Please model this.
Amino acid sequence: MSAEVIPLSIGRDADAARATDIELLFQSHSESVFRYLRALIGGEDEALDLTALTFERALGQLQR
Model:
């Protein structure tokens, strides 16, 4: 999955722009993060949980 993330913040409400940017970030990188974590720890369920936690923390940092 290779997609270029393009900020879409221009001319829109800041909250809507942030939501779109976060969605693009997730769509662009979640599969790679999941595959990395699955290879690292070996378990698919745990890798899914850790992928979700990774993006949850990233979202928290973006909101600061």
Notes: The CA atoms of residues 7 and 21 lie 6 Å apart. The radius of gyration is 13 Å.
